[in-house]
Amino acid sequence: MISYGQFLEKSLENFTYATILDGTGILRGFEQWKEKDLTSAVTLSIVAVGWPVFCICGAIYRLYFDPLAKIPGPKLAAMTTWYEAYYDVWLGGKYIFKIAELHKEYGPLIRINPHEIHCNDPNFIDDIFPGATKKTNKYRFTGRRTMTKNSMVATIQHDVHRQRRGAVANFFSSARIRKLEPIITISLEKILGRMESASKTGEVMSLNYVFKAATSDIITKYAFGNSTNFLDYPDYNMPFMKAVDSVFKMNHALMHFPWLGPLLEASPRWFCRILAPGLFDLMKMQEVWKAQVEDIRNSPDPDAGKDTIFYGILHSNLPPEEKTTARLGHEAQLTVLAGQDTTGTTLSFAVFELLANPASLKKLRAELVAAIHEPKVVPTYSQVEALPYLGAVVQEILRLHPSVVSRLPRVSPYEDVVYKNSQTGEDYNIPAGTSMNMTTWVLHTNPEVFQDPFEFIPERWIENPRLDKSLIAFAKGTRNCLGMNLARQELFTIIAGIFRKYDLYDGTGTQTCPTLELYDTERARDVDMNSDMIIPYPAEGSHGVRVVVRH
Ligand code: HEM
């Protein structure tokens, strides 16, 4: 018996992923169907009867004969992907909660759909996310979610991924990221400047937008040499952020209905504007990113954009087909959105947790005051990177509020992987080609791994720093987060810069330093994840984390 994953690897060898996604495979089949005049009543009747029989046989095969049949999990999930689609498309990003529940019922290894398994055991992290000695593919359909199938994060094959990542890895080394200090400092100064203005005007600040504006400004400057400067917009360019939100919110539909992405891409822009206005706005932004890449490529000045990521890609030894505008457009979208939404969201969570947990804020401020003597000058990374309590706060935020919550699929293309359940002693063979997954939020809130998982307890990281073995906020292995050093530098510097200056408002009116107070922000409504849309979203209608600033 072969698994579906192996079947795909073999049968699709000459029939590329791109062909399927472009819909040309479907069109070719349809042409042949028409040519052979298979539209007669007889064939249609055969199809009408044959299709349900085919589906029933397929479901029986998946349930009893597929090599994944022995993996525990609900029968319906094993039979059809509609089970998952119900939670993610119909209910809107809720399968993550169901998966957490299913682990409680069926144990640490479960089958979550006919072709994929999910694990909630930290002992299996290194098998799912191995280092460079093992080949690791991405699940074939990952790129559908964001319509960026040619970006690094969606690259299926191990060797192609290594090549693409190798072309930019240098730009994300800690030494290179340290050189971004002046850019991060400018954004931090602008954030503090906007906070001071808000204290005068009485503006309630929506931190989600403030921080996404900052992280966008930083990553676009580094990627293309031109910053978006959203922190200078009166509304932080909220409409663009909302457009990005609505694209993230389409990810499950794009994943489950393979024709949707190609249809939207091929549609006239006016049609797309009516059907998916957010996507329309994003497409306009994609054109801007592509134009910036082309500016670097075609500049008469050979040094134009010299220190930027896309200069690096264009001048790397990648073959020409890897440097087309179309492919780099996908890479640009990944770079900007991965750099913007993840860290931006994490910063909002950090401010919320510190204001909601005064004892933690008190410890953090004591540490910052001792380390940074001049409150009016924004801190440098080297001043704050080794501060133990700040480090613990960052770890705890990444654990409790990971900003990538979609499951992280990895495929061992040629070798089977064995999972040993340490509780029952049972071994499960996971055939090569199977999509194996872990989910940050599910593992990070597993009480067997992290005690009191829903409490914000930075001290746990000081008592036991080795807990980091089970922290997968940035994933692990060869396909882990490339922007991790940048994210950490932004998080440390911006959190330190804000809380060196601001204390929690205590309502007495006697405080001598500037203060922050949460404004109509409720944990259940505005902070806790309500849906997995690749990044976590709060309940519908939420305004996110908001603060009032007083000087
Ligand atoms: C707190 C902030 C961040 C978190 C929690 C985070 C998390 C992650 C995770 C979990 C992955 C793996 C995704 C997968 O396997 O499907 C990933 C990949 C990636 N991230 Fe981040 N990220 C953050 C910030 C950033 C930043 C600032 C950048 C800068 C551009 C970035 C760029 C990337 C890239 C390029 C990849 C793809 C790597 C590859 O496929 O080899 N991330 N990130």
TrEMBL record:
Q: Which GO terms describe its molecular function?
A: heme binding; iron ion binding; monooxygenase activity; oxidoreductase activity, acting on paired donors, with incorporation or reduction of molecular oxygen
Q: Which residues form the signal peptide?
A: none
Q: Where are the transmembrane segments?
A: 38-64
Q: Which InterPro entries match?
A: Cyt_P450, Cyt_P450_E_grp-I, Cyt_P450_sf, Cytochrome_P450_monoxygenase
SUPFAM superfamilies referenced in this protein's UniProt entry, alphabetically: Cytochrome P450 (SSF48264)
Necessary cofactors:
heme
Q: Name one Pfam family in it.
A: p450
Instruction: Give the record's keywords alphabetically.
Output: Heme, Iron, Membrane, Metal-binding, Monooxygenase, Oxidoreductase, Transmembrane, Transmembrane helix
Q: Where does heme bind?
A: C481
Q: Which family does it belong to?
A: Belongs to the cytochrome P450 family.
What is the protein name for this chain?
Answer: Cytochrome P450
Query: What organism is recorded for this protein?
Result: Patellaria atrata CBS 101060
